[in-house]
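Methods — Computational structure assignment.
A single polypeptide chain was analysed. Its primary sequence is given first, followed by the predicted tertiary structure written as structure tokens.
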Amino acid sequence: MIVGKIAFRNLTRQKRRSVLLGGALSFGMCILVIINGVTGGLIASLQKNFSGLAAGDVFFMQAEKGEDGMLVSVSRDDTELLEAIKASKIKYTAVTRRTVTSGSVIYSGDYANRQIAGVRWEDESAFGGTLDVIAGDTRFMAGSDGIVISDALAESVALIQRKNLTYAEGAALRREIKIRWKEGGKRFDLEREISRETAALVKTRAEKQALDAQKAIGETVLVKLKTINGQDNVAEFRVAAIFRAQMDYSAYVDRGLLDSVLAMPEGSFTICAITLENFSNLEGKTRKIYSALKKRFDLVPYAKISGRRTGELLLELEDEQFTGQKTIVTNLNNELGPIVGILTAVQQGSFFLFLAILAVIMVGLVNTFRIVVYERMREIGTMRALGAQRNEIRNLFLCEAMFLGIAGIVPGFCVGMAALFTIRLFRFEAFPELALFLDGGHLAFAVSPLLLALSALTVIIVTLLAAVFPARKAARMEPATALRTQL
């Protein structure tokens, strides 16, 4: 206790030096908290938004191959899957069964390729409410020939007015303003004028788009797709609703109708999606479900699944020589492909950046403690002469180092969190391409407690290591030698 009090007093004797060293440690901690929080928030928002689109977090798919060698993606029963999840005691909130395929949506000669998702609307009554519908209604989709499409898809097939300017339109506007600028003989800020006129055009188009969206409800579109037997088929759908998409991912129709168009067996589906109670340890939970299903199904090895989309896996299965059924158990992170991997690598990489900053700071800390030992030689000699033991002298300097580390951790963490809360206040609606990474238009943050604890421990260890050799040197001093030192 006495050693701690003396160490704290010594740390406050040289306030400027302590503030500079603590500030350097705080800077590193602050940078770590900000990068960690922002990347964690991007991952969490991406998972949350994509989970809503894909209707789940863990996915169960089956593919069959008969004597003819044709691969068919079809699942008939998920009873054993649900039993395995129940046995593994993994908590989930919903089970969704959908038929998913790819097709071309055609209207008045224009077409766009999209994923077509067959939804059992009577089972997913809340799904329509998660869509930002700008025209039409999703409440009467069950058993109907309706199709729910995104505003981006509606723009692509010219159902509604395109809101944003294309690259060619933007270039034409720039040329027009330049000509007007030269002919008028007036000087003005070209970029500001382009931004102003672009914003005005987008606003006008958005108003026109809202009217077009209302008129588009009830229009008939064609969807060209292939049946599960590989035959081409074309189906007619009536536009039931248009929604504003964060990500132009799917068009949604009634599952029963889509199954009949695809010649699917009655009551079957292509994908079973499990929505977990939370995203924590998604990989571990997926592997746990995988292990529980090993004895029940012929599973595709998880080593092949990890980090890859199901589309790639199905293409590989087409080339494999087998007869019977193969089962895929995958998750949201695999479907998102390299995006989550990159963000996770950035989050983890922030720790190595933090270590690099600490390595530079450590050099300064070692030199500082050497100077401190030299400055306090006579003081050390006096303490030794009065009966202080070597380990007490050593512990005195180590306590100073620990207090300095804490003095760097706490302000750095507080400033970093304050910066994250400040960033959270801003809206980023002007960047629609970032919508999938945002939470309600805001940049969310999620700080990893484990990484923070590891970082705080690292700061303490680094400061202690910086002080340990000067502290040992101070502890080994002979009292008489130290007292004779002239400073």
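Note: DSSP finds 17 helices and eleven strands in the chain.
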